[in-house]
Amino acid sequence: MEVNGYLLIAASGGLNQQRVGITDSVVVARLLNATLVVPHFDHRSYWKDPSNFSDIFDVDWFIQSVAPDVTVIKELPQTVRKSLPKQVYNLRVPRKVPAWYYSRRIRHLLKRKHVLRLTKFDYRLANELETDLQKLRCRTNYKALRFTKSLQDIGQVLVDRMRAKGRRYIALHLRFESDMLAFSGCYYGGGERERRDLGSIRKRWKSLRLQNPERERRLGKCPLTPEEVGIMLRALGYGNNTYLYVASGDVYNGEASLAPLKALFPNFYTKELLANQVELTPFANFSSRMAAIDYIVCSRSDVFVANNNGNMVRILAGERRFNGHKRTIRPNVRKLGVLFSARHNMSWEDFAKSVRHHQKGFIGDPMEVKPGRGGFHDNPAACICEVPEANETLRIWREQHVQRPKEKELQAQSEVGSSLVIPLEDRSDLMEEFNDLRGVRLSSDTEAAEELPLKDEVADEEENTDGETEGEAEGDDDGDNY
Question: Are residues 236 and 300 in the same domain?
């Protein structure tokens, strides 16, 4: 088949947002039958990290791994460069467009221009794709995107040191930096100083509206504090002898915020505590490389926990499902936010029992998210059956938990009929499961993609504002290196 042209990609945001862009760029190149040039990273984002693709990922391995599906080159051939006009045609595609949008509306443009650059490329492809394209996403994300040897080596050193201390460990992704709190619009009791500090940061998102902090908390949009995530873990049964690795940036209010978590879990470690200055110096001034080290330690942990639902959490949750449903605890923030507000009015036993109840479905069990539900990057259901470890874990889980259909239907009928047994907010989920058992299929929403416009851009883009649309759409600051 004739190649239609060359595809340039400008991946935006932090490490994990860029990872999504790289993964989807391979799929788009296949849809367009284009030769993909190794994606370029945006150096003007909030993090101001000058790292390139080859500084973080093994570029030769990447090219070799995706070769059966897409041709990838490191740079445009000199002959093509000479034939180009002064400005390459830039285009920003709307967010989460379906596959056919590229086939029908972008392919002819690529043929005409021969070289096309897609800018701010993150989450620019729909969640739901055909199975073969989803599997290409998985092959790219979980197999082709391998960190450089230097990053893998230092990451493994930290994993080995954690295991030497406690054999097993929990990794906590603690997103509690000032930019994250400012973007959330939440209030954490810091008075006028907090309002002033976070308010000034919020000004960089021009389209971000002023929010009601209490409403945001009720809606589950406020990350748990370090103390709250520590209390959640203790309520789930993890004792103070647990070894905890914390992956984070500069936590807002520093030691004052971390002190309660350290009191709950004295075996508290970070990469800065585990590694010496000489070991970290090659990476210290590059936020994406430091985030990659944390990613490796979190990926290889026995349990992964988060206080948020940002890009890194979604990517890691999907990878851990793919690699055998490794335990991943994500807080049910909407329910826990209300519960924490009332915890002083109940006994510890009642509080812990409520935490365990609300966390059902948020602890990484194989069947807790149905195929097609949630985002593909945190639930790559189309690919999991291809991994022997995940398949075996799923088989064991089914044997231990899944009843015969008739028994389960009778149980569902009994539980749905009793408001004293099932809380009101949980009955809709149980009824949906009950309907599934009876063969009732629910229709899924489809995007009105025919109406999606193209967004032309000049070659010299305006400065990246990191989150005017990206952060709002994903519920997180788009500069999610941590």
Answer: yes
Instruction: Indicate if 111 and 161 belong to the same structural domain.
Output: no
| Distance between CA atoms of residues 291 and 277, nearest Å | 16
Tell me the C-alpha distance between 301 and 251, whole Å: 22
240 near 266, Cβ under 8 Å?
yes
Which of 309, 434, 429, 439 lies closest to 379 in space, CA to CA? Answer: 309
Reported as a single tens digit per residue, the pLDDT across 218-241 is 777 889 999 999 999 999 999 999
> How many CA atoms within 13 Å lie on the side-chain side of 436?
10
Q: Determine, yes or no, domain membership for 12.
A: yes
Q: What is the mean pLDDT of the chain?
A: 82
Cα dihedral: 57, 61, 63, 66 (round 10):
-110
Cα–Cα distance, 279 to 103 (Å, whole number): 47
- Angle at which helix 287-299 crosses helix 15-32, to 10 degrees, equals 90
Mean pLDDT of 75-91: 91
Q: 452 to each of 94, 99, 128, 416, 472, how far by Cα in Å?
A: 7, 13, 17, 41, 18
Within a 10 A sphere around the Cβ of 124, how many other Cβ atoms? 22
User: Which residues span the domain enclosing 77?
Assistant: 6-146
Flag whether 428 is in a domain. Answer: no
Same domain, 355 and 320: yes
68/47 Cα distance (integer angstroms): 34
| Short-list 46, 33, 464, 469, CA closest to 249 | 46
Bridge partners for 76 per DSSP? none
* Local confidence band at 438 (pLDDT 50, 70, 90 cut-offs): very low
Q: How far apart are CA 287 and CA 41, in angstroms?
A: 13
HSE on the CB side for 131, CA within 13 Å?
A: 7
Q: Does 229 lie in the same domain as 133?
A: no
Domain count, the chain: 2
Pick the last residue of a domain from 400, 429, 446: 400
Are 358 and 229 members of one domain?
yes
Are 131 and 156 within one domain?
no
Query: Where among 128, 146, 164 does a domain terminate?
Result: 146
23 Cβ contact list (under 8 Å, min separation 6): 137, 140, 141, 145, 377
pLDDT at 434 over 50: no
Q: Give the predicted TM-score (pTM) of the model.
A: 0.81
- Please count the other Cβ atoms lying within 10 Å of the Cβ belonging to residue 414: 11
